[in-house]
Structure formats: C-alpha cells, structure tokens
Amino acid sequence: MKQNSTLGNLPNPSAAHQRDSLPNTTGATREPLLNEQQAAEFLNIRPGTLACWRVTKRYPLPYVKIGRSVRYRRSDLEAFAAAREQGADDLAQGGE
User: Fold this and answer.
1) Which stretch of DSSP H or E encloses residue 64?
2) Torsion from C-alpha of 68, 74, 80, 82, nearest 10 degrees
3) Is 58 part of a structural domain of the chain?
4) Is the pTM of this model over 0.85?
5) Is residue 19, in this structure, part of any structural domain at all?
6) Across residues 16-43, what is the average pLDDT?
7) Which residues span the domain enclosing 48?
C-alpha cells in the first residue's frame, strides 16, 4: 500500500501560535502577540488609527515587526490604556 505523500505536508496546528510569539529569551512566560486587527479591537479603535500612530510616532506604543507584519503585546496595550486613564483622582486634583 502506497502512503499518501500529502499527509507529511499538512500544516502544523501550532505553527500560527509559534509564528505570533516571540522566543522566550528572558526566562519569563511567552506572551502571544496580537495582530493589528486584534490590537485595534482591544483598544476599540480602527486598525488604520494604529497605523497612523506608528507612522507619525504620535504615541509611544511599542510594536513588533516580523517581516511586513506588525504585532502588539497585550501587556503593552494594557499599559498604554492605563497610562491614558482619566478618573476621579484627576478631578480631585483640578483636572477636567
């Protein structure tokens, strides 16, 4: 019986996860990277807004370039949003 040669060419289901993660060089747990669409959804903005911010360097939002792909760490997005949080503390200090 001849073995089907296409079975050896099937994509590895974890390949996408490996592609979207950085190697673990710091000893910390690996953090999956979000693509531009996912990052935009997380921040509730359009992907084009992220692209504009990158090109103009409007905000110091870290990103990772892998070839032509742009990826974001969730922890960087959370820190970015937290740094821009406005709340009761600002009002108590005379903010608007």
Assistant:
1) strand 64-66
2) 170
3) yes
4) no
5) no
6) 74
7) 31-86
| Count of domains forming the chain | 1
- Which residue's structure tokens are 């949080």? 85
- What tokens appear for 14 in the block? 């974890």
Question: Locate tokens 């990103």: which residue?
Answer: 63
Q: How far is CA 51 from CA 11, 27, 41, 81, in A?
A: 30, 31, 14, 17
What average pLDDT score do residues 27-46 get?
A: 90
Average pLDDT for 45-59: 96
Tens-place pLDDT, residues 71-96? 999 999 999 999 999 886 655 566 55
23 domain-assigned:
no
Q: 78: domain CATH number?
A: 1.10.10
